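Weekly puzzle thread! Below is a chain. First person to post its structure in token form gets bragging rights.
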Amino acid sequence: MEEKKGSTIVYLVSMIVNFMIYRSIKAGIQLPTIRPDEEELDENRLEGLRTDLRSESSGLGLGWQEVMNHLVSPLGGNETLMGQVLRRNYDLLESLISSSSFREMTEGQIENPDTWGDSLPDYKVRQEDYFAAIKEIFALDLAVVRSDAEWEREPPDLEGTLASIKGKYKLDGDELEKLRRRATEFLRAAFANYLEMDFQIVRRAIDGRAEGPRAWPLQ
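Winning reply:
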């Protein structure tokens, strides 16, 4: 197939694969929804891509189902491609920990009974201790999930590190569990936000298809 003739079908396949990888990661980690309005439009976007791929395949004398079976499905489940997306987001999450944005994300949310259904004792007095503990638990949780996705990484000592955090900040068992729950939810929210930022580029590219093929950025 000539490169010029195949460029559109390659683009359409790549966009559908982006959808598959995004949805697989989001469902696999059970991430919260950040942009519900956009997700409502996603099915129409995906259906439009499939319709265009079917038409383009027919015009090139290719079977629609063959393209799906031999290109789209294998790429959508490709562990290397998925690993690249995960690593990019894990790197962003690691850089978040040492930034001022981490405090902006968590402060004001650590002690919020309406959100958590419980309270932390002496929060006003121990605010800095609780924040520092959550920061370390967040980093620990990230190291755990990253080691699960990247086999070459040595998994951290979860129980030993938690015990160290508990002693360092003089937490009782109940305090530690409350902080763990908060850190886990902060991690899920931050991961979902970065993944959405990544995928929003794909959405905007798809929406730009209305301007014609010359507006489609070939990946």
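Puzzle host: Confirmed. Bonus trivia for everyone else. The chain has two domains: 3-79+199-215, 84-195.
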